[in-house]
């Protein structure tokens, strides 16, 4: 491809890798974990033991 002859292929590879890594890092740190406090329910049932 003579149109892209001035560009070094190693530079293009590095740009691709850097963009890929930045995309992955931004997605990793932007992902919001929902707190699972709704799953933890403390049962406050009081037992009346009459032995």
TrEMBL record:
The chain crosses the membrane at residues 12-34. InterPro entries: ATP8_metazoa (IPR001421). GO terms for molecular function: proton transmembrane transporter activity. One of its GO terms (cellular component) is mitochondrial membrane. The keyword Membrane applies. Belongs to the ATPase protein 8 family. F-type ATPases have 2 components, CF(1) - the catalytic core - and CF(0) - the membrane proton channel. This is ATP synthase complex subunit 8. It comes from Lepidapion squamigerum.
């Amino acid at each position: 491809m003579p149109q892209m002859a001035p560009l070094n292929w190693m530079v293009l590879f590095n740009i691709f890798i850097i963009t890929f890594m930045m995309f992955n890092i931004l997605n990793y740190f932007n992902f919001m974990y929902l707190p699972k406090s709704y799953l933890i329910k403390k049962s406050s049932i009081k037992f009346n033991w009459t032995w």
